[in-house]
Amino acid sequence: MGKKKESNTSFLVQGTILAAASMISRIIGLIYRIPLTAILGDTGNNYYASAFKIYNILLIISSYSLPLAVSKLVSANISQGRRRNVYRILKCSLIFGAVSGLAAAAVLFFGAETITNLMRTPLSIFAVETLVPVLFIMAILGVLRGFFQGLGTMMPSAMSQILEQIANAVMSVWAAYMLFSHGLKVGAVLGDAEEYAAAYGAAGGTIGTGTGALVALLFSMFVLFAYLRSFKRKMKKERRANVDSYGSIVKLLIVTIIPVLLSSTIYNCNALIDEAIFKNIAHFQGYAESQYGAWNGIYSGKYQVLINVPIAIASAVAASSVPALTAAYASRKRGAAKRQIATATRFIMVIAFPCTVGMGVLASPILQLLFHDSSELAARMMQVGAAAILFYSLSTLTNGLLQGMNRMKEPIKNALIALVLHIGVLVGLMLGFDLNIYAVVIANTAFGFIMCVLNARSIRRFGGARQEIRRTFLVPALSSAVMGVVVWLIYQLLMKLSGSNLLATPASILIGAIVYAVLLLLLKGLTEQEILRLPKGRLLVRIAKKMRLLR
To answer: Could you give the number of structural domains in the chain?
Structure first.
């Protein structure tokens, strides 16, 4: 019984470790984006964001699916005690990663000018070309992270993420400042100092990305070499030495990667498609390039940066769920798999609901606090699109759950349907209602919502898992709604008393978090057993019992 319980919840513990690291990384990313945004301005943020959308598509194609695919193969073989085969999978994956990373880098290098012209941001080419070598580094890094995740430990991935973001933060701000100054000089000669300064500054920001990736790779290689000593000793003791051929492993890798690759590409390319459609329709409607470029800079550099912080938790839990579900299905433990699906979904909803409500209620105060932006446009974007946090958190998790269940085609089919429908929403809102950048926000939210509905249907159909409604959705939703009212009242009161947004915003967020936690426990949204499964669960239970929130 103890073993069952441990296997059922260890993935959540590992997911929480990775989620904590992802949150720390996103917070570091949020902090360094404040000075970076100030240096680049909305125009520079437009170049920076456009470069990353182009880079992200090639990153997805070359290496985004590698961690998940490698972790699936490693997990399945470890559960069968085939360490020799795991070692072969590692070697094949590294070669595969190197080849795919080099190919993607070559495409980006030779196609940069054409792609940036299609995106109507030709000066983003400096930032795009700076990202070329990062594609190769990330492919190798993806294999190493997938290897450790497949072994059931998220710590190397977690630590490498934090180190990556720290190095990225320091180098991005410094390089952006230096190259922005250089761009002013170049632009003064070429006759457009402001545009060239923004473009060079954006390239400086992307230099930080490469530095962070290199630091993470070096750390992961160090951990790998240290771990392989003990791994090889265990491998030599293995009695069953049956291993697959290198050719069959490569075929298995390709078969595993292609569905993940297709679903990830479709799921993530909506941002690039949205930007291309938005800019071209805005140009057709007569808006100036500087105007729609600045709108996109606010959308990508502020709105998306903020909503991606809580979504990172869903990505981490999804990453930890895949190997755990793969092992459960490989061992034909369908009951354990259903419990893992239910536990992961409840965990995500408990976090996503309050983040959604809080971001909507405190949209303007948060933007003023972090970016010194008091514009109505940025605040409205956050308010209109706050629901994207909820929908993308759930759709990201359910994508991972379906992949862990070996239903690899389902996320592809669902993402394709959502992509087509959301493009219709975007074009209709822009041409029919002239909503400009708000059309992008609404269409992006619609994509996440459609994915949630379609993925939930697939999980019910193939996994037989029917999610409990009251504690998973209703209690977090009600607790978040009450929290939102309290947060708004507290913020208004503190602003009247102090007149300081710097004081009122963090204080109201802290009070809101306490109110939400209390309501969640009083309404039995989390049981004592569920809290105990979390890291430091015993401490949390003791505190809750002292406050008489648990009986």
So the answer is: 2
